[in-house]
Every structure is written in structure tokens, then in C-alpha cells.
Amino acid sequence: MIYLGKFNNLSILRETSVGLFLGDDDGTDILLPNKYKPDSYQIGDKLDVFCYLDHQERPVATTLKPYVQRDRFALLRVAEVNEIGAFMDWGLEKHLLVPFKEQRFKMVEGQSYVVYCYLDEVTFRLVASNKLDKFLSNNTLDLEVGEEVTVLLTRESDLGWDVIVNNTHKGLIYANEIFKKLAVGDKLRAYVKKIREDQKLDISLQPIGIAVIEPSSQKIIDFLKDNDGYMELNDKSSPEAIKDTFEMSKKTFKKALGSLYKDKVILLKDDGVYLND
Hints:
Layout: E1 7-15, E2 19-23, E3 29-33, E4 46-53, E5 59-62, E6 72-81, E7 85-89, E8 96-99, E9 112-119, E10 126-129, E11 148-156, E12 160-165, E13 169-174, E14 187-195, E15 201-204, H1 213-226, E16 230-231, H2 239-246, H3 250-262, E17 266-269, E18 272-275
Parallel strand pairs: 13-15
Antiparallel strand pairs: 1-2, 1-4, 2-3, 4-5, 6-7, 6-9, 7-8, 9-10, 11-12, 11-14, 12-13, 14-15, 16-18, 17-18
Helix pairs in contact: 1-3
């Protein structure tokens, strides 16, 4: 079967004046237009191609790589808005439609939004939606506290940042636990901090527990090495100064200093911290 909205590994079946016809093991074929043909090929060769519908709603293959695939979330820019909806630039010749009914708020040309790409079962067309919550579920969570996950930032609020966890679940990073600049559409490595009774996920950008000390300690060591083995910051420095320099909380910074001091990696003096030779 050839899957629209996804990459398919297909065989070259035949060459025509308009391009190469590619096929799968089920006998289904699709056109790869001339402009996407590889420089050299033979009948029977396998190609990885992305399949979607062209401007005439015909299935077509391309070697271009879209910014999002079917059943995935991504930050896309609005290329055009008309009476049908918003059309997103997703890296292909034909833009991706977000119908008005799938927009949380009316989209504006030139602005970027996180959307979900899916196959409309009625029209059999690839479309996108900005109403993200209906494509996410926390009913079944196969996660553990401390587990590393991938998150996509979708929205900032007074509480913090709403995130999509592993392309499946909703999560939240609290504002008081963020120590670097973030933006909508950022994809980051993160960690499950807490799984609440109502299945809500608290997410942290730092490893949980003891694991947080090692990378934090390494940041301090690297900083000292880059600054002739010395820094003015110490356990009495302001949280803001520590955050600006190391993108970590003062609590984590003090724990890392304590660990390094215990291991005799650093010296703590009144005027700052020194790397122990």
C-alpha cells in the first residue's frame, strides 16, 4: 500500500514522457515527475519518496522533504489565506490547507502556528488542524518519572509552557523551572517530572534527581576551563546571574558546586570558584 502523507520505499516500474512510475508490492503505482528523477537509475531500483496529492488532487510522489508528515505536529508558516482557509508552507509545491473550522483563532498570513497534519477521511485529502488537543490523549500513559522524552512547545501561559510529549500526550513545563529563552515550535529533549492522579504530565527540561547533578557539574567545569579556571559566581550569587550564565536554578547550581567541592574538583574561596589543578 502507498501511504499518502508519508515516505514510501517504492520500486521504479517504468519510465514515461512525464516521469517515472513507482510501485509497491501490492501493484499500486504513483508518478514521480521528471523534475524529481534521480540523475541515474535503473528499472527496479528502490526510491524513498514522499507521496501526496498535487494541485489536480492526483496522487504524486516527490523527493522533496516536507516540514511535517501525516499524523505529526510541526510549526508551519501561513503562506496564504483565502475564502477556504489558511494555506501553510510545508516545503512542497502545493501548500497544506488548514480549514477555518480547524483554526483555534483566525490565522494570519506570514504568522507561524503549530499544526497537526492528518488525512481527512471524508475528502481523502491531507489537511492540518490548529486545534491540537483533540489529537492528544493522556488516557493511557506508558511513561515513568525521570524518563527522557521529546517535547514540542505549543503555547505559553502564566503557568508556563504547554508541550506535546512524544507526539502523543499533553504536558506542562512550569515557568519557575525554565532557565533559558523558549519559543513556540521549539523541539527539545525533556524529562517526566511527575505523573498526576488526573494523568496530567509535569515536564522538566533538566534530568530528574541525582541525574541532574552530572550535566550541571560538567557545565561548571567547562565554564571554568574556558575562563582560566576561575569564576566570580558562587553559592551566594543571585538566582538571576546563575540563570543567565548556566541556564539552571540556584538550587541545582549549589548542588553541583557541592558535588564538585566534595570530589576536590574545585576550590571555594571568598572571591569566587577556582578549578583545582
